[in-house]
Amino acid sequence: MVGKILISACLLGHAVRYDGKGKPLSHPAIERWKDEGRLVTICPEMAGGMPVPRPSAEIENGASGLDVLEGRARVLEVTGGDVTDAFIAGARKALAFAQQNDCTHALLIDGSPSCGSLAIYDGSFSGRKHVGNGVTAALLQKSGIAVFSHVDVDTLEALTK
Fold it and tell me: Which of 121, 87, 94 lies closest to 108, judged by CA?
């Protein structure tokens, strides 16, 4: 049974991304879930105290969100700033928010160093991606919340019927 769904704020059109934009995902299931009061919205990076806009960030050296959570990698901005602590804080706040709202699933924007669940950028700021997850996606998964990428909304929808 799918309960409430934690959703990346940018997928609902909120201008919270690093570039100051949203990335709205238009899908009938999202409208239905919204009408049913099942969506719980968060931007983990903003929850971690990051501004909008902000420099783009990637997890270093082709590492993953789990590597960041376990202290083996950092999240670095294109400008060289270390924003690891903000990403971890945002992930922890997203998890607490999901648990407080009885979220069983999450629908997150892929590619993000926070929310990516299929692929994330490799840390070279060259546009290359690799299989891996972001910090928030890793923490949610580790805590038993099923994470879906925005490209897998049909799969999540099938679970809700």
Answer: 94
Q: Provide the percentage of residues in the chain whose pLDDT is more than 90.
A: 96
Q: Is residue 64 over pLDDT 70?
A: yes
Q: Are 17 and 52 in contact (CB under 8 A)?
A: yes
Does pTM surpass 0.70?
A: yes
What lies within 8 Å, CB to CB, of 147 at 6+ separation is 105, 106, 108, 117, 133, 137, 140, 141
Q: 35-46 burial, b for 16+ CB within 10 Å, e for fewer?
A: eeebbbbbbbbb
DSSP secondary structure letters along 121-132: E-SSSSS-EEE-
∠ Cα 117 4 134 (to 5°):
15
Instruction: Give the strands of the sheet with 39-42, arranged side by side.
Output: 39-42, 4-8, 103-108, 146-149
How far from chain centre, in Å, is Cα 81?
20
What's the rounded Cα separation, in Å, for the pair 66 and 86?
Answer: 15
Phi, psi of 93, rounded to the nearest 5 degrees: -70, -40
Residue 161: is its pLDDT beyond 80? Answer: no
